Amino acid sequence: MSHALTELFEGNRRWAAATEARDPGFFTRLLSQQTPQYLWIGCSDSRVPANEILGLLPGDVFVHRNVANVVAHGDLNALSVMQFAVDALKVRHVMVVGHFGCGGVRAALLDLRIGIADNWLRHVTDVRNQHRPFLDTLADDETRMKALCELNVLEQAYNVCQTTVLQDAWSRRQTVVVHGWVYGLHNGLLEDLKMTVASWGDVEPAYQVALAGIHARHGQHIERGVSVSA
Ligand code: CO
Q: Looking at residue 42, what DSSP letter applies?
């Protein structure tokens, strides 16, 4: 075993000992069941670890991650995670969490070739194309990049709401709220995009509120540019 991997096992032993010392019986209690309140659907990016960002411990958050936090309608993996989280674990919140500076979103925005992921990222390219009239009005690629990171969260959270998993949960009056958040790699902070959906009737209004917010935040750049040059 290489030196680096030995360090991982040593690090693991230190972490387990420290966790047990801080909270005796911690692992024994988790053995019997998990009762997370949250399902986090995020990007695979190593800089966006769900538990650490939320300050939560093992047992607190159920996690699904893929490149660019995509929720595709036919993705059996994501659907299985969602169904187990909502139906069996009864999570109270499902958050789709994107992040600024996402390489997958950048590739989709600029039509960069990465490899097999290009096919996966077509889902994000679809989001770009859907919002192209707005994106084309923005000043530069950096602004478009930020806007598309947020728009991708918005659309993927919308997709979560369209699943039979959420629709069935809401029709049996189960309490489960869908959220769209974006994370700043530069400051470690989460922003709420206000795509907050607690029932089927909330979906379209919440989508419109969040979309208006995205338009206002990024569209301001143009207005400032126009007033400076005028
Ligand atoms: Co990413």
A: E
Residue 229 alpha carbon to ligand 1 centre in Å = 35
Q: What are phi and psi of 198, to 5 degrees?
A: -110, -5
**43, 64, 149, 161: the active-site residue:** 43
| Residue 219, token pair as written in the block | 């569209």
Q: How far is the CA of 3 from the centre of ligand 1 (A)?
A: 29
Domains annotated on the chain, with CATH:
1-33 (no CATH), 34-229 (3.40.1050.10)
In whole angstroms, give the CA distance from residue 159 to residue 156: 5
Under a CB-based contact definition with an 8 Å cutoff, are residues 152 and 127 in contact? yes
131 among known catalytic residues: no
149 catalytic? Reply is no
Q: What is the DSSP letter of 36?
A: -
126-160 pLDDT per residue, tens:
999 999 999 999 999 999 999 999 999 999 999 99
Closest to 188 measured CA to CA, from 97, 58, 127 = 97
* Residue in this structure with the two tokens 């969260």, named with its chain if needed: 153
- Joined together, the tokens standing for residue 63 give 């996690």
pLDDT tens for 61-87 read: 999 999 999 999 999 999 999 999 999
Reported as half-sphere exposure (CB side, CA atoms, 13 A), residue 120 has a value of: 15
Between strands 177-183 and 190-192, the pairing is antiparallel
Model confidence pTM above 0.85: yes
What's the one-letter identity of residue 171? S
**pLDDT tens-digit map of 176-212:** 999 999 999 999 999 999 999 999 999 999 999 999 9
Write the DSSP assignment of 184-196 as a string of letters. -TTT--EEE----
